[in-house]
Amino acid sequence: MVRVLVIGYAPDAVDFTDPAIPPGLTGAVVAEGIKRDVQLMLDRGWEAEHLPIRADGNFRHDILDRLASKAYDCIVIGAGVRMTTKHVPEFEQVVDAVRNGAPQTPIAFNSSPDSSGEAAARWLTKT
Question: End-to-end CA distance of the chain, in Å?
């Protein structure tokens, strides 16, 4: 079975006042998009998980723990992690944790809360 891990900020951890965040996004919209996207991946027959992170000192450890617990066929890093310049250091840490915890696993990037399945499929069809 294909396993996909989506790493993204917890919906309540996003600063929606940041001008880099697309207008109209709210915690509820993000949460619904994540839920819908995970369901779409499950409908494809994949095992899909969302790992919500926060811009605090624990997310690197959380990512490495999750990657040590099982293997994934693709890891998707959410747009919210990388779309704002305020979080470049956190984005670098997420990428580094994934690179260290799953060095052979393809990394994909979504463009919205409900496009992780599409992002993963770009890599999963190559294997």
Answer: 13
